[in-house]
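Quick check before the chapter quiz. The format below is the same one you will see on the exam, so make sure you can read both the input and the output lines.
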Amino acid sequence: MEKRTKLVHGGTKRSQWGELSEAIFLTQGFAYDSAEQAEARFIQSAPDEFIYARYGNPTVRMFEERIAGLEGTEDAFATASGMAAVNGALMSMLRAGDHVVAARALFGSCLYILEEILPRYGVEVSFVDGADLDQWRAAVQPGTKAVFFESMANPTLELVDIEGVSSIARSVGAKVLIDNVFSTPIYSNAVAQGADVVIYSATKHIDGQGRTLGGVILGSREFIRKTVEPFLKHTGGSMSPFTAWVMLKGLETMDLRVRAQTASAGAIAEALENHPKVRQVRYPGAPSHPQYDLAMRQLGAGGTMVAIDLHGGKEAAFRFLNALEVVLISNNLGDAKSIATHPATTTHQRLTDDQRASLGIGDGLIRLSVGIEDPRDLVADILNALELI
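Here is the expected output.
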């Protein structure tokens, strides 16, 4: 089946009632026919047998199977948030003495896990410029356990060459873990390009309508069930059944939403390309992006995000944000509503000035998550706001 069909039908399980929409199993536990059955299920549950909602649930399982079928992995584990997915994927596989190499261009919470949490437990983390394959080659060591990066960096939209880094990681036996949020499951070919583990904040494009928090870890059945599941079911990071149902509904329309958002993002980037108040437009789908060829090879599209670097720094950025009428100010992304964010004072404010400068996060940088509004209205709103700064 093609992706759009998988998004509607993948993983569906119906009860004896034959419901058309997926059922929500709002239950913490499950009853057994006998004590012997309970004993057997705790020893080894079959795929459609459940014990406790923290361990698994029929609605959650439908979501896991649908997103795994879409991404092309053997299995998936759904989590309470995107950061629960990042933390769960890393913490479940790492031990004291392990070594990880990570791109330094990361979302603030991801950076916190790698800079603060993992070193507390004896994990060594080396940071590199994610776009520089020579730095990856120099940083990995025999015995490096994992490499971790955002396939498209938040908020600078810098891409990492998945095939290139995966080849380097395989040479030392390291697993490749990718935070793939900006690339989206629609354009992702990460598994075919070498990723072992793909992580999404399902809060973003998967729900895509600002309703719930959620995340998912995708990989081999052995990694998901023998490494990730034991860690998360005992530490409590699993997704709720209601959230899983919302995510299933989100998946049904995700292809339509993401492609519409991408088309609008391209129109916005084109409209701003030579604007006198814009220092730089960063959009991977624009030929002016320094990694345009990689974006086309890796994704085939520019995605739903645009970064706008304004002349005039923070003062100009704030005036621009405050002048927007259609586009909302918030720190979420991947939503049906267009959202503008000032990363230097919100999502990446905990970084030092030097860290932000090294990543290209200046005071004039605006991260724009493009929604599904009419692109003519979005372009007009942004151009009007620029005229008022």
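If your answer matched, good. Residues 189 and 289 are 20 Å apart (CA to CA).
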